[in-house]
Structure formats: C-alpha cells, structure tokens
Amino acid sequence: MHAHQIFEHPYFEERPVKDILEPFGFEVHHNTHELPIEELDTDEDCSLYSTDPSAYIDQLENTAPSGYKEIARFENEDGILIVSVLPKTLFAMYLLGADPLYRGPYTGSYASYTEVYQERMRQISSEGFNSERDGNYMKGELARAAGSYASIAGNAIERGASETSNMLTTDWPFDRAWWKPTTPRRDLVKAGALILAEIERLDRAAAYAKAGEDAA
Fold it and tell me: How much of the chain, in percent, has pLDDT values that exceed 70?
C-alpha cells in the first residue's frame, strides 16, 4: 500500500511512531505481525513472502478499531508493522489530508495547512534540509529565514503587490542564491515551513540535552 507521506520525515528513523503522532492529535493503533517462519507458518505464507513480500504484507489483517485510517504497513526490525490513526483534533485532520490519497471530505478545503506541511517535506526531500543539516543552524537562522519571507509578504500585501520576486531583504541569513520569493501567499507558505523546521530543531536540541542530563 501507499504509506502516508508523513513517514518520509526523518523523525520516524529516530523515534517510535506513537511518540511522534500522538502529540499532533492522533490516536494511534498499531499491530505487529511476525515474519513467516517455516517451522510455524504454512508453506503458502512462506512461499508468498519469499517470492513477493509486498503482496504478503498487503494481505495481512489490520485489527484497528472501526473509524481508524490505515496510513502505513511496513517491515522493520520487529516484524511487519501496520499503523492506523484516528484524528482527534482539527490539526490532525489537516495533517492527514496533507497526502491527497488520505484526504477525506473534512480536509479538502484546508489547503493552507496542507501546503505548509508539503513545503516542509519538499525542503527535506528535494533540498536536503533534513534534521542533521538543520541541527547546524544554532543561531536562529531558520527563524530569521522564516521572518524574512513573512516580512516581505506583509510588505507586498500592504502595497497591494501580487509578486515579490524582485524584493530583497537584509535579514536573510543564508546565501543569496537560496532567496526565492515569488508571491505573498507562497512566501507565507515557505515561512510557515521554516518555522516548523526551527521548532523541530529546538525540540531535538532539548531532547538531546535532557538525554545527556539523564545519562550523567
């Protein structure tokens, strides 16, 4: 099956699924199937897994309660994990709808929320701004970059300008080649994604610091 695009985020390589999704307002259900073992499972299961692992994984039963939406099933070190969620907040609904394949009737009109998240994922997957790289920006660069885009968007809106591609700022903390304003709305989407990146960086730094204190 198609896993929700949220699983492209590097957080899922570092932390348990429930620890990431529950703070966003999801109730999370996951069930784990052990990999087929010749001594315990049928020849048919073992044969299917060995010849077509994806088909084997797709036919496994999901035991999530009614109302939960399956968003991923994949193999990990514990076996085969099936993850289903029930959004309990509006933000969780918007986040679920960030992937068009999971967009229900209650998420279709919330383009602003999903676009910010999609832009954040684009920064990670297309431009290489993953958690390791973002961790090097310890002097507020991400927050200042977000402020730069938000500021010129505000100036353009105040003047009634529909484009910002020729607008400059002295607050941009990165190389000039990375400064790519286009329209006020698009600039605000970029600003929102950069704010998310900075919040994530601050949270990681706090978690690492706490882990160091606990280990001391």
Answer: 91
